[in-house]
Amino acid sequence: MKKIKLSEILTPDVITVATGIALREVLSTMAALRISCVLAVNSKNQPLGIFTEQDALRVLAGQQALDGLVMADVMTIPPLCASPDMDYRDAFRLLQEHGSRHLIVTDAHNRLLGIVTEEAFLLHLGSEELTAFKTVASVMARNVATIDEGETVATAAQQMHRLQLSCIVVTRDAVPVGILTERDAVRLELDISEPGRVPVGSVMSCPLITVSPDTTLEHAIQHFASNKIRNLVVTDQGRLSGIVNRHNLVNTLRGDYVKFLQETIKKQRRKMLQLNQQCLLNKLHSTALEASANAILITDTEGIIQWANAAFSNLSGYSSDEVIGRRPKDLIKSGLQSREFYEVLWQTILSGQAWQGELVNKRRDGTLYTEELTITPVRTENDKMTHFIAVMQDISERKLLEKMQAASLDVLDKIIANQPLPDMMLAIIHHLENLFPIIRASVLQLDATTGLLRQVIAPSLPDFYASAIERLQANSDASICEMAAFSGETVIIEDVQSHPRCVPFRELAERAGFRACTATPIKDGQDNVLGIFTVYFVHPHFPGQTKLNLLKEFARLAGISIAKDKTETQRLALTTSLQNSEARYRTLVEAAPFPVVISSLADGSLLYGNDRAQLMFGISREQGIGKPAALFYVHPEERDRFVSAVLEKGLVTDYEVQLYKSGGKIIWVLLSGRVMDFDGQAALTTSFVEITDRKHYEDRLREAAAVMESTHEGVMITDLTPRIIAVNRACLAITGYTEEELIGKNPAILHSGHKDQAFYAMLWQQLLRDGHWQGEILNRRKSGEIYPQWLTISTIYNEQQEPVRYVGVFADISELKRQQAQLDFMAHHDALTRLPNRSMVETRIKQEIEQAHRHGQNLAVLFIDLDRFKIVNDSFGHPVGDELLCQVAERLAARLREGDMLARLGGDEFILLANTLSDAQDAAVLARDIIAALGEPFMLSGQHEVFIGGSIGISLFPDDGNTVTELMKNADAAMYFAKENGRNQFSFYTSELNADARHKLEMENDLRRALLHNELLLHYQAKIDLHTGKICGVEALIRWQKPDGTLMSPAEFIPLAEKTGVILTIGNLVLDRACQQIRQWLDDGLDNVHIAVNISARQFRNGNLDKLVAESLQKYQIDGRHLELELNESMLMHEPERAIETMQKLKNIGVKLSLDDFGTGYSNLAYLRRFPIDSLKIDQSFVRGMIADPGDAEIASVIINLAHRLKLSVIAEGVENETQLAFMRTNNCDELQGYLFSKALSAPEFT
To answer: How many CB atoms sit inside 10 A of residue 695's CB?
Structure first.
């Protein structure tokens, strides 16, 4: 909705007048121009007040005579103002909140720009859209105020003013005949002088313009415009039904308009949100389908393709443009599925069910592939089938692998069954040709002795071709089979007729019907070529990676078969050889210099052990034979693992285990073993070497290494050269070097150059003498950075106490140094401003005193306290206060001379130490400079410009003290003197200041003791009702009765109580004693008891005054009307809004409020009208001075008149003579108080 500013709808032509113009002239202008208001402005065209038709009605209702009345007497102060940039809707709400009909528009300097009335809002609230179909009955006010035509104008005006009506309907015998409006009040105020005698029927506006309830608002608005009226009376068949005017029309239309816009905006937002969510969802679905790895087609119910993703194009070879609008069967159908297969598929999906299955399809290039297909019907909300979604996954490779796995298992079964080699080769070829019907295969075996390839099996090759191949020899210049056998790599001939190496074989291949072939080497487990696996194709062909992988797998199976056949042949030969060598082996075992045992592989029993084995295990050969070998293992399962390792590798050496030695001792041994044939059975030969001592040493090394690697401290080990032989990870992290860069280097690589040769000579001297050295040094990292290091060097000795190694353990203490520096800084500096603190400045002052004493120099200590800092802190908060302190510190530091020191003591107190002064005048110049700096504005948080100031006390050395304590104490005293004498100035210390300070301290202590010993008393001074001459109340006044009986006036101790905070205790005491006295006098039978109590500023701002008053009233069971609180004018203007809130809470309790010492402060009259007070108290200075000074008398008169206009009573205090009494009686003052009637008396004296 477009924002409309007030500047766009205001009326710039505003009638303005001076405040002193006669009211009659104002009314004449309004009547002549038919305007609703006139503004009072000053010489700068700034609005001061406004006079409206409502104000005219108020004057008419009061029957005030026009003569002598001026604009200032009757105008509304202040007028409601707003900025030209304010939105007209916000402005309308502002009018409603204040119950006003006129909004004054002013610029940034409060100068008048124009006025906005209800008519302007009616125009811009969009009434034409909301009134076209509404009737008057929907908005009219049904409770209509009426008055008989015989009643007087004054009565009608009073009724309108009291009920805040803009008009009243005049009736004759209950029938409406005319109307009296606010505009009529302007006219009547001019025309009639005695409204109390003129009947309303003679001056009413008539004839009456009426409309029926079913009249549309659009026509009603036209009536307003054409007749230049603001009120329409609604009648139904002559009976009064209601009234409609511009004011309630604007309010009603605004409510309807806002409701209409809110509903429309809500609907549009909901719809847009749903559309956005649906668009996002559709986009996500589309992205997901397009990005899917599966091929996806969307067709209509006839099978016509509507959409295809990129994966379908990759699978089929057809682009998206080529398939849109066509049927899948016309593109990819292979013909391998039956007609019945497709009938079942279509029956399923047309019934609304999903179909899933496997089928073979054809790519664009003619190749076949197997896919897993899922077709899902798509339905609308009304269950109508619209599309089919087909999701296809190419499973060709998976199907091929499944067949390959079955073939592998079949071949392996034949290998395990020890079938003849030709039978195994035949099975391999049959499986391959079944997988790929378009190929033919053969297997040739390489004779390692002759180098010839001989045909093992080729069932599908023509006989003439197989015979020719068998004659080929293995060399690099022959056939592709020979190339594969020679290179050990797969050889691919995509086209025999074009390949240069196939020229000698083209005719042979053409006769056999082959155009392409691939030869794959057959290898054993050691990568030795055993033969060639060759496949032939009838067309030019390059096998893909999948086919090559399958060919390699079949070649692997062939290799296993050939190797198995060779192994079996060799096994038979070895059996004979082993039997011949067994005798020789027994002789060698017996002569071995280490223990050897032979155990059965079948059951693990011992078969044989040499003499050294008998010695190790402590049993004879006869005792050991037949026992399980596992009995000698600490962990029997270890033997099983050892046997498994031997069986896997054939020969195992250096296998570590724990065994039981003779006597049950556990030892570590290294096992070596191999499988052999012993006496016709499979056996394990095992030899033993004991390594127990080595293992213990390794454990100690591991423990040391673990400690070394886990520590956060750097560790470096050197030989005696010294050269670095080992470092840990922490060492590398600290120095930045790699292990390779340090090993073999001298530790001097880390030296920083900050220590001389004498230092290192001393280090080595101590290390060689004591065996260790410890201390802090500076070393250099690889990056060049110098860092502090805490280093400990220790000497490592061997068993003969000879030094063999040096171990250096060190830590980077950079962070520790930084923390120490930070702690030292924090101990001597202020955390907020970073200035020196009290401790540091006192140390510095002490040093400067000693130096000044030696050299006969002068020093000055300046104690600086910020003025108005607390106001800033309380007004804007502590963060802003902290920012102010930091800015003050920066500004003062910029004024320092060389050698001066500025410190912050805490709060808003600073100390400046100035040295090398020639005389006191130098300190004065420095103080003036500081005061000038503090007097400049401070900009806080980028938006608050504040002005403070500073009070400075100066003490000089040696004149004002010879110690730190004396100088700081005396500067503090001088500062307080400067503050008490007006602030924002400096003062030098004098001895009298300490005497005054001691006096105040003694008085403060006496005052606190007085509270403990009940020395504070209440006296009561009567207040006299001037009209009756009787006592109408008393004011409670505090007195301090010293132990010697003398009474001290509050003027002597209350200022001190205010400053020290004791005033809160005193204020609570006075409030309690006054309530107690009220209770006493009520119990004594006095009925007109009213006691006024003075409230201090601290007590008022403490935040809990209302609770204290309520508790006191409750404590003594008295009504709030008996208690009056006197509030000082200045305390209320400190924070007027908060003051109004506090006063309202007090009024709610029922107490009376009086504004004390009125006229001495700077009250804003606009706030005065809002203060919920009952009376004003004229300050006694005006009463005393009215005889000698006519100005004081005039002020007193104005205060009385102002109070009466505000419906407040007036009390004059300090009335001491008959002249003052006569003046107050002449000016209608309500109550008097003073020595003329009575001095303040104790309660017994008063009663």
So the answer is: 15
Q: Do the Cβ atoms of 889 and 953 come closer than 8 Å?
A: no
Q: What is the CA 821 to chain-centroid distance, rounded?
A: 33
Query: Before 1190, cis peptide (omega within 30)?
Result: no
| Amino acid (1-letter code) at residue 88 | Y
Spatial neighbors of 1201 by CB under 8 A, at least 6 apart, are: 1227
CATH of domain 420-571: 3.30.450.40
pLDDT at 265 over 60: no
- Architecture of the domain made up of 1003-1246: Alpha-Beta Barrel (3.20)
Please check the confidence at residue 892 and state whether its pLDDT lies above 70. yes
What's the fold here for domain 292-394?
A: Beta-Lactamase (3.30.450)
Going from N- to C-terminal start, the domains of the chain cover 6-257, 292-394, 420-571, 592-690, 698-812, 829-989, 1003-1246
Dist. CA 934–CA 978, nearest whole Å = 15
Rounded Cα distance between 162 and 396, Å, is: 98
- Return the closest-CA partner of residue 908 out of 926, 885, 927: 885
Go through 894-914 and write b for each residue having 16 or more CB atoms within 10 A of its CB, e for each that does not.
eeeeeebbbbbbeebbbbbbb
Decide if 867 contacts 949 (C-beta within 8 A).
yes
Using the predicted structure, report yes or no on whether residue 125 has a pLDDT greater than 70. no
Q: Counting beta carbons within 10 angstroms of the beta carbon of residue 132, is it exposed (0 to 12), middle (13 to 18) or buried (19 or more)? A: exposed
Burial label, 95 (beta-carbon count in 10 A; 0-12, 13-18, 19+):
buried
CATH of the domain spanning 698-812: 3.30.450.20
Rounded to the nearest angstrom, the gap between the alpha carbon of residue 60 and the centroid of all alpha carbons in its chain is 63
Residues in the chain: 1247
| CATH code 2.60.120.10 for 6-257 | no
Please, which residues have CB within 8 angstroms of residue 1131's CB and are 6 or more apart in sequence? 1096, 1097, 1100, 1101, 1139
Return the CATH number of the domain spanning residue range 829-989. 3.30.70.270
pLDDT at 127: 46
Residue with structure tokens 């220790």? 794
Rounded Cα gap, residues 817 and 346, in angstroms: 84
Strands, DSSP E only, in 466-589?
A: 491-493, 516-523, 529-537
Question: Do 1123 and 1078 touch, CB atoms closer than 8 A?
Answer: yes
Tokens 């204290």 label which residue? 1108
Picking from 185, 35, 62, 174, the residue whose alpha carbon sits closest to that of residue 117 is 35
1203-1207: Cβ within 8 A, 24+ apart: 1203/1175, 1203/1176, 1204/1228, 1206/1168, 1206/1169
Burial of 631 (0-12, 13-18, 19+ CB in 10 A): middle
* 8 A C-beta contact, residue 1095 and residue 1112: no
The single residue listed with the structure tokens 């006063």 is 1143
- Edge-to-edge strands of the sheet including 453-457? 453-457, 439-446, 529-537, 516-523, 491-493
pLDDT value at position 1204? 92
- How far apart CA 909 and CA 538 sit, in angstroms, is 106
Render 325-369 in DSSP notation, one character per residue: TS-THHHHB-S-S-HHHHHHHHHHHHTT--EEEEEEEE-TTS-EE
Residue 260 pLDDT: 42
592-690 shares its CATH topology with 1003-1246: no
Span 912-963, pLDDT tens digits:
999 888 788 888 889 989 999 998 999 998 888 888 999 999 999 998 899 9
What homologous superfamily does CATH list for 592-690?
Answer: PAS domain (3.30.450.20)
Distance between CA 184 and CA 198 in Å, rounded? 14
Nearest Cα neighbor of 967 from 1004, 932, 915, 929 is 915
Q: Is the pTM of this model over 0.85?
A: no
Rounded to 10°, the helix 53-61/23-33 angle is 130
- Cβ neighbour number for residue 826 with a 10 Å cutoff: 11
